[in-house]
Design brief:
The complex is a heterodimer of chains A (352) and B (323).
Chain A (H helix, E strand, L loop, with lengths): L3 E13 L4 H5 L6 E13 L3 E5 L6 H8 L7 E6 L3 H6 L11 E2 L6 H10 E4 L13 H11 L6 H14 L18 H13 L5 E5 L7 H15 L5 E6 L2 H7 L2 E6 L2 E7 H6 L4 H9 L41 H5 L5 E4 L2 E3 L8
Parallel strand pairs in A: 3-8, 3-9, 6-7, 7-8
Antiparallel strand pairs in A: 1-2, 1-4, 4-5, 9-10, 10-12, 11-12
Helix pairs in contact in A: 5-7, 6-7
Chain B lengths: L3 E12 L2 E13 L4 E5 L6 H8 L7 E10 L2 E2 L5 H8 L4 E4 L13 H13 L3 H14 L16 H13 L5 E5 L7 H18 L2 E6 L2 H7 L2 E6 L2 E7 H6 L4 H8 L38 H5 L5 E4 L2 E3 L2 H5 L5
Parallel strand pairs in B: 3-8, 3-9, 6-7, 7-8
Antiparallel strand pairs in B: 1-2, 1-4, 4-5, 9-10, 10-12, 11-12
The chains are: A alpha/beta (352), B alpha/beta (323).
Chain lengths: 352, 323
């Protein structure tokens, strides 16, 4: 089995809701939106790990927890730094397998080195680039923050290299442009260059192609794969689109209301789905086949995702599940291995 | 007579930089009970085309030339008052992009749905309620929704209300502009199933406008592919999806990842042109892998390559398609 670069154990993120005056006066406890409610997963070196789910399932929150843009409410996040970084980290923060616990309190110096290695690319290339900065200054900023390059010339060279890597060539043509002078695809390339310029080992990409036109999506997906070549780079790919996940990802985790309901290789999850929710998701994906117009799509489930503030008891999927049994209403199903590497959280597959 | 006949329609936006030719010489026809899908990238003019069809082009845009015949009446020449009275809602209704936000937050569902009935048909509130209940059932909702406000509904439910609203005066033609784009995939499939039911039950004409060819394959009988303000390929669903002739259509179809196969996908290099100064000749030539000399000079005509299948490409013109 290949090495694990990142491990989440029982990871949780709750967002508190505001209480009304009535709730405060009647001493009602504060309610929470349980955006991520105890997820476990491993990310292996060199893989594209995919988090799939509908809006509100907690996939973006998970991505932000991994990059530590959000503080988790509970759980563990273990990260294996590169060897060079590991040498600079004092051994008391490193466990016997070479992992650093990201949820523990780390000295600022170490924290910064680790943050450099885990980067994120956002969905909206129109919103994630500062409209008043040129491409050059956008790419220079991370170098300044992380103290990379001694002189302006050296930094310029690094920036040129980063731009050629994302195929914005010749770089001279792009460095003085502002984001509004670029097309959507080019902007997303700049966003990639900004993340890659720090030589990260783990990159979280949050719906990087869903704002782009269909005709250029493949270009960005191919760029992601090209970037991996010759590096020990792992991706967390967050998407709602199972077809894209199937195309790009090594392993897929399907999330529903803050939990992982199914996890396995892309082939296992797409071609042999076990959880009723995964089956419904796959059945709902449209394809450009004109035969589809003659038939009504059979959807095994009805209704919509409930609010994450009021999660149903037991299995959170039971109100929509066609196979819901008694136990589903009472107890939460564990994530169990049904075949090597393929995990499902469903009472249909667990002994009870 | 066709339900809708568009002839040489031109809709431009007059900006300080010059005229943006968003819809440039588009012609199409639609029969009763037919569903036409219009696909293209963002900025290809597909939404402008939809707005033109109800005479509702936002300024600084306007219809410059051409005819839009609905039941023989040319709505391109009608004034605002006549459009309101005779065309919108009654003959043609529209489901806008992001329709979930098209509902007024301060009115109940009943009040919003009753308005067109009261204004256009002179119904009393009681008569309107009866009609609304019937319609809610048709879109898969029940009476309990009458007294609710939009914020109490989920995205899918709001979309159903908007569809009900579009159908309320039994128009001959419903135009849906990206009706499922903001929805989750399961809800999207539910709404597409609803559209299929509506199509069967009401036998109305529909125009589906989307960037997603998969959605068009779900429902359309005929497909038009737009690029830079022009229709570059038009035909039945089977013709366009199974036998695409224009290099742009071929490229679009090859760029869609499939869930049921792991086929390699490709992309179309470059970006769509600026519609203030579109390239000379074929507008696709800067991105076309087969661009020839003639493509840079002359605009290709829309030629019939097989019965009902039209393509605007010099590759086809050279092979002797007929006009």
């Amino acid at each position: 089995m290949s090495e694990v670069v990142f491990r989440a154990k029982g990871l949780k993120k709750y967002f508190p809701l505001r209480r009304s005056m009535k709730e405060i006066l009647t001493l009602k406890p504060r309610r929470y939106v349980k955006a991520v409610d105890g997820v476990d997963f491993d990310i292996k070196v060199g893989e594209v790990f995919c988090l799939v789910g509908e809006s509100g399932c907690g996939k973006t929150t998970t991505g932000r927890l991994i990059t530590r843009l959000l503080e988790p409410t509970g759980g563990l996040m273990l990260y294996k730094p590169t060897r060079e970084t590991l040498e600079k980290v004092s051994p008391k923060y490193v466990d016997k397998d070479g992992y650093v616990n990201l949820t523990s309190k780390l000295p600022k110096r170490i924290d910064k080195m680790l943050r450099q290695e885990i980067q994120i690319i956002f969905q909206d290339p129109f919103g994630s680039l500062d409209p008043r900065m040129t491409v050059y200054s956008i790419l220079k900023e991370p170098l300044i923050v992380h103290n990379i390059g001694d002189s302006e010339e050296e930094r310029r060279e690094i920036i040129y290299r980063a731009l050629s890597e994302v195929k914005l060539t010749p770089p001279e043509q792009f460095i003085n442009r502002y984001p509004h002078m670029l097309s959507g695809g080019q902007r997303q390339r700049v966003a990639f260059a900004r993340a890659m310029i720090l030589r990260p080992t783990l990159v979280v990409t949050d719906e990087p192609v869903s704002m782009l036109d269909v005709s250029i999506r493949a270009e960005i997906l191919q760029l992601m794969l090209d970037m991996q070549a010759g590096r020990n780079l792992s991706y967390v790919f967050i998407t709602h689109d199972l077809a894209v996940a199937n195309y790009l990802c090594t392993r897929i985790a399907v999330m529903y209301l803050g939990k992982i309901v199914e996890l396995g290789t892309a082939d296992q999850v797409i071609n042999n789905p076990q959880h009723p929710y995964t089956k419904a998701l796959i059945a709902a994906v449209p394809e450009p086949d004109p035969k589809n117009r003659f038939k009504v799509r059979e959807l095994p489930i009805t209704g919509e995702v409930p609010s994450a503030a009021e999660i149903p008891p037991g299995c959170r999927f039971h109100p929509r599940c066609p196979y819901a049994m008694d136990i589903c209403r009472r107890e939460e199903p564990p994530l169990l291995e049904v075949e090597p590497g393929h995990y499902v959280a469903c009472w249909l597959h667990a002994k009870h | 007579m066709s339900l809708l006949e568009v002839k040489n329609l031109k809709t431009y936006y007059y900006t300080l930089r010059g005229a943006v030719r968003a819809v440039d010489n588009v012609s199409l026809t639609l029969q009763k009970g037919e569903v036409l899908g219009i696909a293209g990238e963002s900025g290809c003019g597909k939404s402008t085309l939809a707005w033109s069809l109800i005479g509702y082009v936002p300024p600084p845009g306007r219809i410059v030339d051409g005819n839009i015949l609905i039941d023989g009446k040319d709505i391109a020449k009608m004034d605002e008052a006549a459009l309101r009275k005779e065309i919108r809602w009654k003959k043609v209704s529209m489901i806008f992009q992001g329709a979930m936000n098209a509902l007024t937050p301060v009115f109940t569902i009943e009040d919003q749905l009753a308005e067109p009935l009261i204004v256009h048909k002179g119904y009393t509130k009681e008569e309107a309620r009866e009609e609304i209940i019937k319609l809610l059932k048709a879109v898969g909702l029940d009476e309990s929704f009458l007294k609710r406000y939009p914020h109490e509904l989920s995205g899918g439910q709001k979309q159903r209300i908007v569809i009900a609203m579009a159908l309320i005066l039994h128009p001959d033609l419903v135009i849906a502009d990206e009706p499922t784009t903001a929805l989750d995939v399961i809800v999207q499939a539910q709404i597409m199933n609803l559209f299929k039911e509506v199509k069967k039950k009401y036998n109305i004409g529909m125009i589906f406008i989307t960037h997603d060819l998969s959605i068009i394959a779900e429902i359309a009988d005929k497909v038009a592919i737009m690029y830079a303000g022009k229709i570059i390929e038009f035909g039945t669903s089977d013709q366009v999806f199974l036998n695409p002739q224009h290099p742009y259509t071929q490229g679009l179809l090859k760029s869609i990842p499939r869930i049921r196969s792991k086929e390699k996908i490709s992309w179309i290099p470059g970006v769509p042109p600026d519609l203030v100064r579109p390239p000379a000749g074929c507008r696709f030539h800067p991105r076309c892998p087969y661009a020839m000399d003639i493509c840079r000079r002359e605009e290709p005509p829309l030629l019939e390559v097989e019965p009902g299948h039209y393509v605007a490409c010099h590759l086809i013109a050279g092979k002797g398609g007929k006009k």
